[in-house]
Design brief:
- The protein is built from three helices and no strands.
- The chain has helices at about 10-20, 25-45, 55-65.
- Helix 1 (about 10-20) crosses helix 2.
- It is elongated, with a radius of gyration of 22 Å.
């Protein structure tokens, strides 16, 4: 998707320095990927305690060993 953005020069420069990227385009891509990863992790953490997991790994291991 093509998009035109207007960014503060100082903000773009800081972003390039922090991400280690040479251009604003790559710095923004890098920052967006990191942000999306962070949001996904947070959403997974929010599920903590809401998902019921049956702790039967020992029985499953024994079944694997019998075969």
């Amino acid at each position: 998707m093509r998009m035109t953005l207007t960014l503060d020069d100082d903000l773009a420069e800081q972003l390039m320095q922090l991400t280690g990227q040479q251009t604003p385009l790559f710095a923004i891509r890098h920052a967006l990927k990191d942000y999306l990863l962070s949001v996904r992790k947070q959403k997974l953490l929010e599920l903590r305690g809401q998902v019921q997991v049956e702790d039967n790994w020992r029985q499953l291991r024994q079944l694997d060993m019998k075969e």
